[in-house]
Amino acid sequence: MESEEVDENDEKLSTYNLQLSTPRIAIIGRPNVGKSSMINALMSDPQRQTSPKLVSDIPGTTRDATDARIRHADQEFVFVDTAGLRRKARIEKDLEGLSALRALQAIEDADVCVLLVNADEAVSNQDKKIAGAVIERGKGLIILINKIDLLKGEERAEKMIEARRAFHFCRYAPMLPVSAKTRENLPKLFPLATMVRRNMALRISPREFGAFLKDVIHGHPMSSLKSCKHIAQAGDTSPMFIMFVRNPKNVRVSQLRYIENRLRERFGLEGVPIRLVTKGPRDR
Ligand SMILES: Nc1nc2c(ncn2[C@@H]2O[C@H](COP(=O)(O)OP(=O)(O)O)[C@@H](O)[C@H]2O)c(=O)[nH]1
Ligand SMILES: [Mg+2]
User: Fold this and answer.
1) Tens digits of per-residue pLDDT, 206-237?
2) Which fold has domain 2-17+201-283?
3) Rounded (to 5) percent helix, strand, coil in the chain
4) Which atom in ligand 1 lies closest to the alpha carbon of residue 178?
5) Which residues sit opposite 140 in a β-bridge?
6) Each residue of 117-143: pLDDT tens digit?
7) pTM, 2 dp
8) Ligand 1 binding pocket mutation candidate from 27, 37, 148 (most atoms within 8 A of CB)
9) Which of 51, 126, 145, 149 could bridge 179 with an S-S bond, Cβ 3.0-4.6 Å?
10) Which ligand is nearest to the CA of 37?
11) In this structure, which topology does domain 24-200 adopt according to CATH?
12) How far apart are alpha carbons 126 and 66 in whole angstroms?
């Protein structure tokens, strides 16, 4: 936690701690949601002809995470295809267990995770668990409702409402209806992934965070947070904010949620899981 040493007045401005490396984007989801088809569809026509075939005609045959380098608007992206994440009970063979582990590793190694779900069926618990695995690891998240070509007219809008409701615990994740088959909306994924990666890299300076906190708790009954005189943003990749207060036990979850929502409004953290932690004077 190197940033803990930063003095409140040292760093005045917030910055983007962006790496120059090529963005790594993991494509994740249950078997047969269209992960491999998606990567194939994201490739340009000439690239597709020279790339190894990702999509087999036999369903569920993607075994391991595979990298695909794809250029879009002069920017290179690495898309990582993963084997489907099944429920544990269904993992019978070692090979499948191993590829699930590799998929989790792909989430770990990614800058941004793109979760695919099927448009033609309700969001399942397994879909939610996979989103949970991304959030736990503090990674950027985008949700794609794939196979939207199977739905017509009003069904589409209804599907988006259902999916939003199912993923209520990560409302901050951009959600897009797409089709790997017709390529509908697919080009939008590139700027979306770039935006989420950039948001992930935002480092809010202690001074700016302090001013923000003072501003948003003004006039609210949050005496326990008023004692916060020092804030640190920890972690190199996942945005975690530590607020040092007099008595952490007095800070309620609802108050932290309020702060999180205001943070999102102020700093535009679409796609970014935020962790807000309180610590007492002795933890400093
Ligand atoms: N209608 C439709 N079918 C799709 C779409 N994307 C994938 N599929 C089909 O879904 C099946 C599973 O696709 P695949 O890419 O192998 O899924 P994966 O297991 O997640 O990699 C295949 O039969 C694909 O042709 C889509 O956007 N629309
Ligand atoms: Mg596959």
Assistant:
1) 888 888 888 888 877 777 777 777 777 776 66
2) GMP Synthetase; Chain A, domain 3 (3.30.300)
3) 40, 20, 40
4) 27
5) 112
6) 999 999 999 899 999 999 988 899 999
7) 0.84
8) 37
9) 149
10) 1
11) Rossmann fold (3.40.50)
12) 22
